[in-house]
Design brief:
GO terms for molecular function: DNA-binding transcription factor activity; transcription cis-regulatory region binding. It comes from Nocardiopsis sinuspersici. InterPro entries: Homeodomain-like_sf (IPR009057), HTH-type_TetR-like_transc_reg (IPR050109), HTH_TetR (IPR001647), Tet_transcr_reg_TetR-rel_C_sf (IPR036271), TetR_C_25 (IPR041484). Pfam families: TetR_C_25, TetR_N. This protein is mainly α. It has two domains: 55 residues, Homeodomain-like (Arc Repressor Mutant, subunit A, Orthogonal Bundle); 155 residues, Tetracycline Repressor, domain 2. The chain is 77% helix and 0% strand. The chain is built from ten helices and no strands. Helix 1 packs across helix 4, helix 6 packs across helix 7 and helix 6 packs across helix 9. The relative contact order is 0.08.
Length: 221
């Protein structure tokens, strides 16, 4: 490949990434009704270049989904499989960098529809995968039903975020960096206690449930 062609190719990749990142920020701040023109202005390109790279606004959103879910998966996998306390400390110190992706995640679920269902199901699948990596590494306890555990954790995480934003709206210009800081200050300790040390001191309820599902009582009447 000639240097001129290589330079053009690198420029295209840079423009594509710049458009995608601008779209993630715009979607996260304003929702998915934001126009292609507004995204193009944010990225410093023409609307035509957005369509050139992504085909349509839906194509751009799919690319954003892929990028956001990939980043979240990589981050969670690194955290869950690490034996080094510095991994979490570094992530806590740099959490505000992830605010645009949290905002995008929130808007994706909040908006609903087919894109939201697909996004959420992919999130559940990713959680199951990185927990399996944690099991293989010895940092995560095995589950009787890994798929249901992953779905519960996804529902818990997304539900907590939706509740937080609903009760404490971030304002006209959504400040998800502030929301992340506040969430960490309020919930990081109890979350880590529950995940690390557990809550109940005996397994009475678990044993009762396992007995129930293995031999459910017959309905009367």
């Amino acid at each position: 490949m000639s240097s001129a062609k290589r330079s053009d190719s690198e420029s295209d990749l840079t423009a594509r990434a710049r458009i995608r990142d601008a779209a993630i920020e715009c979607f996260g701040q304003h929702g998915f009704d934001v126009t292609v023109r507004a995204i193009a202005e944010q990225a410093g390109v023409s609307p035509g270049l957005v369509i050139h790279h992504f085909g349509s606004k839906d194509g751009l959103r799919r690319a954003c989904d892929d990028h956001v879910l990939g980043l979240i998966n990589d981050l969670k996998k690194e955290t869950i499989t690490s034996h080094d306390s510095q991994t979490l400390l570094h992530q806590l110190a740099s959490m505000e960098e992830y605010a645009p992706y949290v905002a995008y995640l929130f808007r994706s679920v909040q908006t609903g529809g087919g894109f939201a269902v697909s996004f959420y199901e992919r999130m559940v699948t990713d959680i199951e995968r990185y927990l399996a990596a944690g099991e293989a590494e010895g940092t995560v306890r095995p589950s009787r039903d890994p798929a249901k555990r992953a779905r519960y954790l996804a529902a818990n995480a997304v539900g907590a975020m939706l509740l937080r934003v609903t009760l404490h709206p971030p304002g006209q210009k959504a400040d998800f960096a502030r929301l992340l800081r506040e969430w960490s200050e309020e919930y990081a300790l109890p979350a880590l206690e529950l995940y690390t040390e557990g809550l109940l001191t005996e397994r009475t309820m678990l044993d009762a449930y396992l007995l129930y599902v293995s031999d459910p009582p017959e309905e009367s009447g």
